[in-house]
Design brief:
heterodimer, A: 527 residues, alpha+beta, Methane Monooxygenase Hydroxylase, Chain G, domain 1, MetI-like fold, 14% strand, B: 305 residues, mainly alpha, disordered N terminus, transport (chain B), transmembrane (chain B), MetI-like_sf (chain B), cell membrane (chain B), MetI-like (chain B)
Chain lengths: 527, 305
């Protein structure tokens, strides 16, 4: 143990010649815990019927056992956890994003065609006069949020038999642990959280669209929040012709744009997910409204990133030159103070500046006696964002420029001086080129970071202000805030189109990173 | 004319004068640098001063906020902690758990990977390193549509790992842990002489023993740097956190404070918001001020290497 400091002696861990018993025990203990966890996950996956998940989980578990249970594959012992996370949470999402970009996944298009058809049919259920009603309790599976969990009907028939109804169908409910009122309404059921009236009313929109399919010819819908009826759907699906017929109005719906569409253009509420090929991409490039907005956003995105890097770099460099004087006292103090804007978490900065830019009560207008609608005027909002980013980013440039300046050898400046160069000439011809060589890659990295600076824009302006006639494209939107709004906000979320935008950003960022990596010659350093 | 004197002045006391800008600056002092420095300090600090004075402002609304505090009280802090519909302490706890567990996890994963890449020779080592570099060109953040869909589905099967779970979010953050730091870490691991490993090996130490008891201690500075960079990054992350954490009790400081600063009540809630924002800044600011050297070193290496 000559090379190991003696203070390290008490810690003994490893699987070599003198492996202590507890290290072995700990290793197998951890493996056992991992195995139990895998078994739990597999059991859950089996009960939900996702066989691909079962295979993947079992495969990962076997890999862990093979790598850590034997003495082989030593490098893998160090790489496996990171590798598994990398493949499942970085590579898989990339693949899945690409796949989603070729679909119409989004609001009203989350189900397969079969499920969407079933749901439309179940929703068209009409109550038949004279049939008896069920007692209904609205519930969500235990452990899920009452505001978002999957709606489940707990039903009691007039004869007292109980059922669980979900969007997948109707199943009998075992009587164990059930509590009912005198009228038969279920008040407690193991495995479910029953919603109270207020919670149920909040979900009324979901309830309106919800029905339990009983079979191809019947469905159960709620009336109010405590009773339900079973009735026959007015829609009929014809598998041979691939059409849906409304038997009351006598209208035939055929599939069009992933909706059941009537000849007059009317569609049924639920659409389905389908492959749309390159439509999302071609929309971005050819659809007039989307394209012009997309192009505008792209220009501002590039301008924002470039101006941010330039402004922060210039201010940071000037400050670095200012404080780069060996005789200047209190440099440590200045540095500690100037680091503060960078040290404050980004979301705090953006939100505080958003308040300071408030037109009526904000600090900026009251200090400068201006009355600018900073966040409501497209150009002022752009300026506000650049000012905020300058404040946020100049300390970083100041720090890296200070570092770079101090690493410039004194003798080259000395040589310049001997050759008769003045301070400005030295700065222009000696200091600046050397500085730029040192910080060049950082400028590219900073550009790439700002290109996707989601939180600054989103927290400061939410991408706005928006033109009155177009609420999907804001004047300070970056591509990434645009994609975010497409996917999660807006009138009709469209995750497919958002994924296509993300892929565009992928390529742009990849091109930038590539030029950055080439400069650093990282690729040649691998040995 | 001054060329000759310059050259002489520089040539004699070589160490100090070589860095000096000119004889004039060294003679007439540095007051103008301090004057400009003061202007810079005002620019750098006035938003922070505004935040502090808004946090201690007794009236607590945006209308009454000002740069110089008009009085001081802890009323905003009290309402912040008493507001049941905005569970600030839960947000704080969530943010700290996410940042701590996430950054410890990514340091550990990164260090393990760097040890393998730096100390061992195995098939696929070079393609692996290059592949990790290549993968960094695709920021994980951009896959948010797929991450959302994946975890929404996973949550149906295992509720503890669905949306609204900070553990699922931590897993997401760990996905990029190996790729993001391995180059920086490997560079530092390479500077530790291999002879140390070999000596330990001759003495009978196993690879795990060498790694845990020797290498990890020798590379501690870079581990601290990586830990802090990822702590700061995760503490401030907003995009994925806002997609994942919709339930108010599972939110992070960023998502929670954002929800306070939008909507009709934002002006009334401003004092409360400022108090929360001020407290939220404390951990990261302390980290920065306490470990400036580690961070500054990491900031430059992180991108260059």
């Amino acid at each position: 143990m000559a090379a190991v400091p003696s203070s390290l002696e008490p810690m003994k861990l490893g699987s070599g010649y003198h492996t202590p018993w507890w290290a072995t025990a700990a290793k197998w203990g951890l493996l056992a815990i991992a195995g139990l966890f895998a078994a739990y996950v597999i059991q859950k996956l089996i009960s939900s019927g996702s066989w691909l998940g079962v295979v993947i989980t079992a495969f990962i578990a076997m890999c862990f056992l093979a790598v850590y249970g034997t003495r082989r594959a030593v490098p893998m012992k160090y790489l496996l956890p990171g590798l598994v996370l990398l493949v499942t949470l970085q590579i898989w999402p990339i693949v899945y994003t690409v796949a989603t970009a070729f679909t119409n996944y989004g609001q009203g298009h989350t189900l397969s065609k079969q499920d969407a058809t079933d749901r439309n049919l179940a929703n068209s259920v009409k109550e038949v006069e004279g049939t008896e009603r069920y007692k209904l309790s609205i519930a969500v599976p235990e452990g899920t949020d009452v505001a978002t969990g999957e709606i489940t009907f707990l039903l009691t028939k007039p004869d007292g038999s109980m059922f669980v109804g979900t969007s997948k169908g109707l199943e009998p409910l075992a009587a164990d642990g059930i509590e009912k009122t005198d009228t038969g309404k279920i008040t407690k059921a193991p495995g479910y959280t029953i919603l109270n009236a207020r919670e149920a009313n909040k979900r009324s929109k979901d309830l309106n669209a919800f029905a339990v399919p009983v079979n191809a010819n019947a469905g159960i819908k709620s009336v109010g929040i405590s009773s339900a009826f079973e009735g026959a759907p007015t829609l009929k699906y014809d598998a041979a012709a691939d059409t849906v017929t409304d038997t009351v109005k006598n209208v035939v719906y055929s599939p069009k744009n992933a909706y059941w569409t009537a000849p007059d253009g009317q569609t049924l509420a639920t659409g389905w997910k389908e492959n749309v090929g390159t439509k999302n991409f071609s929309d971005l490039l050819t659809n007039e409204t989307i394209r012009s907005g997309f192009f505008k956003i792209f220009l501002w995105n590039v301008a924002f990133a470039a101006l941010s890097v330039m402004s922060t770099f210039i201010l940071g460099m000037l400050l670095a030159l200012l404080f780069n004087d060996p005789k200047l006292k209190g440099k440590g103090f200045y540095r500690s103070m100037l680091i503060l804007p960078y040290a404050i978490p980004g979301f705090v900065t953006a939100l505080v500046w958003a308040s300071m830019f408030n037109q009526e009560f904000g600090l900026i207008n009251s200090l400068t006696h201006l009355n600018i609608d900073w966040l409501g005027n497209p150009w002022a909002a752009k300026a506000a964002i650049l000012i905020t980013n300058l404040w946020l980013g100049f300390p970083y440039m100041f720090l890296v420029c200070t570092g770079a300046l101090q690493s410039i050898p004194g003798d080259v400046k000395e040589a310049a001086k001997i050759d008769g160069a003045g301070p400005l000439r030295t700065l222009r011809s000696i200091t600046m080129p050397l500085l730029l060589v040192a910080v060049g890659p950082l400028l590219i990295a900073s550009f790439a970071f700002n290109f996707n600076n989601f939180s600054l824009i989103y927290l400061l302006t939410q991408g706005g202000p928006f033109a009155a006639d177009n609420t999907s494209i804001g004047s300070t939107d970056l591509l990434i805030t645009y994609a975010f709004r497409l996917a999660f906000a807006g009138a009709s979320p469209n995750i497919g189109l958002a994924s296509a935008v993300c892929i565009f950003i992928f390529f742009i960022v990849a091109a930038m990173s590539y030029s950055g990596f080439r400069r650093t010659k990282s690729l040649e350093e691998v040995n | 004319m001054s060329n000759v004197t310059d050259a002489v002045a520089v040539a004699v006391p070589d160490g100090r004068a070589a860095v000096a800008k000119s004889p004039r600056a060294s003679g007439s002092g540095t007051w103008w640098r301090h004057a400009l420095g003061l202007v810079t300090l005002i620019w750098a600090l006035f938003p922070i001063l505004f935040l502090i004075s808004a946090a201690i402002n007794p009236a607590g609304s945006l209308q009454t906020s000002s740069l110089i505090p008009s009085g001081s009280s802890l009323a905003n802090f009290r309402t912040l902690f008493d507001d049941a519909s905005r569970p600030y302490t839960s947000w704080y706890k969530n943010s700290m758990i996410i940042a701590l567990v996430g950054s410890l996890g990514s340091v550990f994963i990164g260090a393990c990977a760097a040890y393998a890449f730096s100390r061992m020779r195995f098939a696929g080592r070079r393609p692996g390193l290059l592949g990790l570099l290549l993968l960094q060109m695709f920021p994980a953040m951009l896959t948010f549509p797929a991450l959302y869909l994946t975890f929404a589905k996973l949550g149906d099967i295992i509720p503890a790992l669905g949306l609204n779970s900070i553990w699922a979010l931590i897993l997401c953050y760990l996905g990029g842990a190996m790729g993001a730091n391995v180059w920086l870490l490997k560079g530092y691991f390479d500077t530790i002489p291999k002879e140390l490993d070999e000596a330990a090996k001759v003495d009978g130490a196993s690879h795990a023993r060498i790694f845990f008891t020797m290498t990890l201690r020798l590379v501690l500075p870079i581990l601290v740097t990586v830990f802090m960079l990822s702590f700061v990054g995760l503490f401030s992350e907003f995009l994925l956190a806002s997609i994942f954490l919709q339930d108010v009790n599972s939110q992070t400081l960023g998502v929670g404070l954002y929800s306070m600063s939008i909507g009709n009540e934002k002006n009334r809630l401003f004092g409360q918001f400022a108090a929360g924002a001020l407290l939220a800044s404390v951990p990261v600011v302390l980290l920065y001020l306490g470990f400036q050297r580690f961070l500054i070193g990491g900031m430059t290496q992180g991108s260059v290497k």
